[in-house]
Amino acid sequence: MRLIILGPPGAGKGTQAERITESRGVPHISTGDIFRDNIRRETPLGKQVKGILDAGGYVTDEITNQIVADRLAEDDAQSGFLLDGYPRTVIQVEALDALLSGWGHQLDAVLELQVDEQELVARLVKRAETSGRTDDTEDVIRERQRIYREETAPLVRIYSERNVVVPIDGVGDLDQVTARISAALDGLTSA
Ligand code: ADP
Description:
Elements: E1 2-6, H1 13-24, E2 28-30, H2 31-40, H3 44-55, H4 61-72, E3 81-84, H5 90-103, E4 109-114, H6 117-131, H7 138-161, E5 165-169, H8 174-190
Parallel strand pairs: 1-3, 1-4, 2-3, 4-5
Enzyme class: transferase
EC number: 2.7.4.3
InterPro entries: Adenylat/UMP-CMP_kin, Adenylat_kinase_CS, P-loop_NTPase
Protein backbone atom coordinates (compact mmCIF):
# COMPACT_ATOMS: atom_id res chain seq x y z
CA MET A 1 0.00 0.00 0.00
CA ARG A 2 1.25 3.44 -0.91
CA LEU A 3 -0.41 5.97 1.34
CA ILE A 4 -0.25 9.60 2.36
CA ILE A 5 -1.73 10.88 5.59
CA LEU A 6 -2.70 14.53 5.44
CA GLY A 7 -4.14 16.79 8.09
CA PRO A 8 -3.40 19.94 10.06
CA PRO A 9 -0.77 20.04 12.82
CA GLY A 10 -2.31 18.43 15.88
CA ALA A 11 -4.72 16.21 13.96
CA GLY A 12 -2.97 13.15 15.33
CA LYS A 13 -1.23 12.14 12.12
CA GLY A 14 1.93 10.88 13.77
CA THR A 15 0.19 8.62 16.26
CA GLN A 16 -2.21 7.21 13.72
CA ALA A 17 0.56 6.76 11.17
CA GLU A 18 2.53 4.74 13.73
CA ARG A 19 -0.44 2.46 14.33
CA ILE A 20 -1.36 1.97 10.68
CA THR A 21 2.18 1.19 9.59
CA GLU A 22 2.54 -1.34 12.37
CA SER A 23 -0.62 -3.18 11.41
CA ARG A 24 -0.05 -2.96 7.64
CA GLY A 25 3.67 -3.70 7.68
CA VAL A 26 4.83 -0.67 5.67
CA PRO A 27 7.40 1.92 6.79
CA HIS A 28 6.23 5.13 8.41
CA ILE A 29 8.05 7.97 6.69
CA SER A 30 7.66 11.22 8.59
CA THR A 31 9.59 14.21 7.26
CA GLY A 32 9.15 15.94 10.63
CA ASP A 33 10.75 12.94 12.40
CA ILE A 34 13.61 12.89 9.89
CA PHE A 35 14.28 16.59 10.45
CA ARG A 36 14.05 16.30 14.24
CA ASP A 37 16.37 13.30 14.21
CA ASN A 38 18.95 15.28 12.23
CA ILE A 39 18.63 18.23 14.61
CA ARG A 40 19.19 15.94 17.58
CA ARG A 41 22.29 14.39 15.98
CA GLU A 42 23.52 17.86 14.96
CA THR A 43 24.13 16.79 11.37
CA PRO A 44 24.74 19.44 8.67
CA LEU A 45 21.11 19.03 7.61
CA GLY A 46 19.98 19.40 11.21
CA LYS A 47 21.93 22.60 11.61
CA GLN A 48 20.49 23.91 8.39
CA VAL A 49 16.84 23.31 9.33
CA LYS A 50 16.74 23.88 13.10
CA GLY A 51 15.80 27.56 12.91
CA ILE A 52 13.04 26.83 10.41
CA LEU A 53 11.44 24.15 12.58
CA ASP A 54 11.69 26.30 15.69
CA ALA A 55 9.80 29.10 13.93
CA GLY A 56 7.13 26.77 12.52
CA GLY A 57 8.05 27.49 8.89
CA TYR A 58 8.53 25.00 6.07
CA VAL A 59 11.89 23.61 5.08
CA THR A 60 12.60 24.36 1.40
CA ASP A 61 11.03 22.08 -1.18
CA GLU A 62 14.44 21.33 -2.60
CA ILE A 63 15.79 19.91 0.65
CA THR A 64 12.57 18.14 1.56
CA ASN A 65 12.11 16.53 -1.86
CA GLN A 66 15.65 15.22 -1.82
CA ILE A 67 15.22 13.67 1.61
CA VAL A 68 12.04 11.92 0.58
CA ALA A 69 13.49 10.72 -2.72
CA ASP A 70 16.40 9.14 -0.85
CA ARG A 71 14.14 7.56 1.75
CA LEU A 72 11.68 6.13 -0.78
CA ALA A 73 14.54 4.57 -2.71
CA GLU A 74 15.44 2.36 0.26
CA ASP A 75 14.57 -1.33 0.16
CA ASP A 76 11.89 -1.33 2.82
CA ALA A 77 9.82 1.23 0.91
CA GLN A 78 9.63 -0.72 -2.34
CA SER A 79 6.41 -2.54 -1.58
CA GLY A 80 4.67 0.31 0.17
CA PHE A 81 4.89 3.20 2.61
CA LEU A 82 2.91 5.73 4.54
CA LEU A 83 4.08 9.30 4.07
CA ASP A 84 3.35 11.54 7.04
CA GLY A 85 3.98 15.28 6.68
CA TYR A 86 4.82 15.02 2.99
CA PRO A 87 3.86 16.35 0.50
CA ARG A 88 3.04 19.70 2.04
CA THR A 89 3.26 22.00 -0.99
CA VAL A 90 2.19 21.80 -4.63
CA ILE A 91 5.86 21.56 -5.66
CA GLN A 92 6.24 18.56 -3.38
CA VAL A 93 3.16 16.93 -4.93
CA GLU A 94 4.79 17.30 -8.33
CA ALA A 95 8.09 15.90 -7.12
CA LEU A 96 6.36 12.89 -5.60
CA ASP A 97 4.36 12.34 -8.81
CA ALA A 98 7.55 12.32 -10.85
CA LEU A 99 9.25 9.94 -8.46
CA LEU A 100 6.40 7.45 -8.36
CA SER A 101 5.68 7.51 -12.06
CA GLY A 102 9.39 6.95 -12.73
CA TRP A 103 9.06 3.72 -10.77
CA GLY A 104 5.70 2.82 -12.32
CA HIS A 105 4.01 3.15 -8.94
CA GLN A 106 0.76 4.78 -7.91
CA LEU A 107 -0.72 6.13 -4.71
CA ASP A 108 -3.49 4.00 -3.27
CA ALA A 109 -5.01 6.63 -1.02
CA VAL A 110 -4.60 9.98 0.66
CA LEU A 111 -6.07 9.77 4.14
CA GLU A 112 -7.34 13.18 5.18
CA LEU A 113 -7.67 13.50 8.95
CA GLN A 114 -10.29 16.15 9.66
CA VAL A 115 -10.27 18.14 12.92
CA ASP A 116 -11.47 21.73 13.41
CA GLU A 117 -8.97 24.44 14.30
CA GLN A 118 -10.16 25.27 17.82
CA GLU A 119 -9.80 21.67 18.87
CA LEU A 120 -6.37 21.55 17.24
CA VAL A 121 -4.91 24.50 19.06
CA ALA A 122 -6.27 23.17 22.37
CA ARG A 123 -4.66 19.77 21.72
CA LEU A 124 -1.31 21.25 20.77
CA VAL A 125 -1.15 23.58 23.74
CA LYS A 126 -1.75 20.52 25.89
CA ARG A 127 0.87 18.47 24.03
CA ALA A 128 3.34 21.31 24.61
CA GLU A 129 3.24 20.61 28.36
CA THR A 130 4.87 17.24 27.81
CA SER A 131 6.41 17.10 24.34
CA GLY A 132 9.41 19.33 24.85
CA ARG A 133 9.03 20.29 21.20
CA THR A 134 10.36 23.80 20.67
CA ASP A 135 7.65 24.42 18.04
CA ASP A 136 4.82 23.68 20.47
CA THR A 137 4.22 27.20 21.79
CA GLU A 138 0.89 28.93 21.15
CA ASP A 139 2.27 31.51 18.71
CA VAL A 140 4.20 28.95 16.72
CA ILE A 141 1.21 26.60 16.80
CA ARG A 142 -1.00 29.32 15.28
CA GLU A 143 1.65 30.05 12.70
CA ARG A 144 1.81 26.36 11.75
CA GLN A 145 -1.99 26.29 11.37
CA ARG A 146 -1.89 29.36 9.15
CA ILE A 147 0.82 27.92 6.91
CA TYR A 148 -1.07 24.65 6.75
CA ARG A 149 -4.25 26.42 5.59
CA GLU A 150 -2.38 28.37 2.95
CA GLU A 151 0.13 25.83 1.69
CA THR A 152 -1.16 22.38 2.45
CA ALA A 153 -4.96 22.48 2.54
CA PRO A 154 -4.99 23.09 -1.27
CA LEU A 155 -3.38 19.68 -1.71
CA VAL A 156 -6.65 18.06 -0.68
CA ARG A 157 -8.23 19.59 -3.76
CA ILE A 158 -5.51 18.32 -6.07
CA TYR A 159 -5.81 14.78 -4.75
CA SER A 160 -9.62 14.98 -4.68
CA GLU A 161 -9.60 15.58 -8.40
CA ARG A 162 -7.76 12.27 -8.72
CA ASN A 163 -10.35 10.53 -6.54
CA VAL A 164 -7.84 9.25 -4.04
CA VAL A 165 -8.85 11.22 -0.95
CA VAL A 166 -10.40 9.26 1.89
CA PRO A 167 -11.76 11.66 4.55
CA ILE A 168 -11.44 10.45 8.13
CA ASP A 169 -13.19 12.05 11.08
CA GLY A 170 -10.29 12.82 13.43
CA VAL A 171 -12.40 13.77 16.45
CA GLY A 172 -12.78 11.10 19.10
CA ASP A 173 -10.39 8.98 21.10
CA LEU A 174 -7.30 7.52 19.47
CA ASP A 175 -8.72 4.02 19.18
CA GLN A 176 -11.89 5.27 17.53
CA VAL A 177 -9.92 7.17 14.93
CA THR A 178 -7.63 4.18 14.32
CA ALA A 179 -10.70 1.99 13.79
CA ARG A 180 -12.08 4.46 11.24
CA ILE A 181 -8.83 4.47 9.30
CA SER A 182 -8.58 0.73 9.44
CA ALA A 183 -12.11 0.31 8.10
CA ALA A 184 -11.36 2.77 5.30
CA LEU A 185 -8.21 0.85 4.32
CA ASP A 186 -10.05 -2.46 4.38
CA GLY A 187 -12.60 -0.87 2.07
CA LEU A 188 -9.83 0.05 -0.35
CA THR A 189 -8.31 -3.39 -0.57
CA SER A 190 -11.65 -5.12 -1.00
CA ALA A 191 -12.90 -2.61 -3.59
P1 ADP B 1 3.20 18.75 12.65
O1 ADP B 1 2.39 17.77 11.86
O2 ADP B 1 2.85 18.73 14.10
O3 ADP B 1 3.24 20.11 12.06
P2 ADP B 1 5.66 17.54 11.64
O4 ADP B 1 6.45 16.63 12.50
O5 ADP B 1 4.97 16.94 10.48
O6 ADP B 1 4.71 18.28 12.64
O7 ADP B 1 6.62 18.70 11.07
C1 ADP B 1 7.37 19.53 11.92
C2 ADP B 1 8.09 20.59 11.13
O8 ADP B 1 9.01 19.97 10.19
C3 ADP B 1 7.22 21.50 10.25
O9 ADP B 1 6.66 22.55 10.97
C4 ADP B 1 8.25 21.97 9.20
O10 ADP B 1 9.11 22.95 9.73
C5 ADP B 1 9.09 20.73 8.97
N1 ADP B 1 8.55 19.90 7.86
C6 ADP B 1 8.06 18.64 7.99
N2 ADP B 1 7.65 18.15 6.79
C7 ADP B 1 7.87 19.13 5.89
C8 ADP B 1 7.63 19.26 4.50
N3 ADP B 1 7.06 18.28 3.78
N4 ADP B 1 8.00 20.42 3.88
C9 ADP B 1 8.56 21.40 4.57
N5 ADP B 1 8.80 21.37 5.89
C10 ADP B 1 8.46 20.25 6.56
